[in-house]
């Protein structure tokens, strides 16, 4: 009969069989754990292709909070605040719905449709226009901070060329994954565009679906958008459409973001427990151990897991 107690002791308690270091903390074991964590992320990415429904990051991002934080960044930089434009919010919503309907994550649609078309289709006549896109963030602050950390997105947010803003936040199905997408549009229009005060939470209900009661009917014969920055594609913001449930039955629900965090936290807690047992046992038995690098291995693994969590936190474009 297999001696399970001896095997467990070999894995978790320093002794003669494991050279007085828990086998789990040996370099080769640490590498195996890192490989398993990374491989688990690969499996999560393949779930949508196998028909398993994948849930995205559940977020409750407020439109007015996005606008408030953006204006706060502008105030800190000494730039005038932006006024809310329901027309731009409508354009942002249309852009996001188009991306979800066609399953693309890009500034320009696969059929060549450019973002500026959504401005004019909504009735916004612009002199300058710009977009920032974000998806799968947990809050308005993390979304704005991500844009602010990117030079090109930050330049869009702080540009003095714009005086209006429209934002839409929608959740829906994107390439088989439940996704939270944010669209942030900037503009400076002609005098007959309709600008409104920044909305309250009750006015926009968190998704900037408000459409102006009237829109300008006349359009300029030629509209030339000025991009910010000019040297790189203008960042944009993505909107997810509210989407309909899939027609094929899908019995399993998996959240890649929660799973990633769960696996990482469990792994770290497990190894920290083993590390604590290892240190306690060595100290109690007064074992002289040369070249022990368990702490270095733990730090290395922790860094890898943190990088994985951050990489899965969200995307901007």
UniProtKB/TrEMBL annotation:
UniProt xrefs under InterPro entries: CAP_dom, CAP_sf
Keyword Transmembrane on entry: yes
Residue span(s) of domain SCP: 68-186
Keyword Transcription regulation: no
Pfam families for the chain: CAP
Coiled coil: none
SUPFAM superfamilies, A to Z: PR-1-like
Transmembrane segments: 262-282, 294-314
Top-rank lineage group of the source organism: Bacteria
Keywords: Membrane, Transmembrane, Transmembrane helix
Protein name per Swiss-Prot or TrEMBL: SCP domain-containing protein
Source organism of the structure: Candidatus Woesebacteria bacterium RIFCSPHIGHO2_01_FULL_40_22
Phylogenetic classification of the source organism: Bacteria, Candidatus Woeseibacteriota
């Amino acid at each position: 009969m297999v001696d399970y107690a001896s095997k467990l002791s070999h894995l978790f308690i320093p002794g003669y069989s494991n050279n007085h270091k828990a086998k789990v903390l040996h370099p080769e074991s640490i590498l195996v754990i890192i490989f398993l964590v990374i491989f688990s992320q690969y499996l999560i990415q393949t779930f949508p292709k196998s028909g398993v429904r994948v849930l995205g990051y559940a977020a409750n991002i407020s439109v007015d909070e996005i606008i408030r934080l953006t204006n706060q960044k502008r105030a800190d930089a000494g730039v005038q605040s932006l006024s809310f434009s329901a027309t731009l919010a409508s354009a942002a919503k249309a852009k996001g719905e188009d991306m979800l309907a066609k399953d693309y994550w890009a500034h320009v649609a696969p059929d060549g449709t450019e973002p500026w078309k959504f401005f004019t289709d909504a009735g916004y006549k612009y002199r300058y226009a710009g977009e920032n896109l974000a998806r799968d963030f947990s809050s308005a602050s993390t979304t704005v901070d991500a844009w602010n950390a990117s030079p090109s997105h930050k330049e869009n947010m702080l540009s003095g060329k714009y005086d209006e803003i429209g934002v839409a936040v929608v959740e829906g199905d994107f390439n088989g994954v439940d996704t939270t997408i944010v669209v942030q549009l900037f503009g400076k229009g002609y005098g007959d565009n309709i600008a409104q005060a920044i909305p309250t939470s009750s006015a926009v209900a968190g998704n900037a679906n408000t459409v102006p009661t009237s829109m300008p009917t006349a359009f300029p014969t030629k509209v030339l958008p000025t991009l910010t920055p000019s040297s790189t594609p203008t960042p944009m913001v993505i909107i997810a459409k509210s989407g309909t449930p899939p027609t094929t039955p899908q019995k399993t629900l998996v959240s890649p973001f929660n799973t990633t965090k769960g696996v990482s936290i469990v792994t770290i807690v497990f190894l920290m427990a083993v590390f604590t047992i290892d240190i306690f046992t060595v100290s109690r038995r007064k074992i002289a151990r040369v070249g022990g690098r368990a702490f270095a291995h733990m730090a290395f693994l922790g860094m890898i897991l943190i990088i994985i969590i951050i990489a899965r936190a969200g995307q901007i474009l």
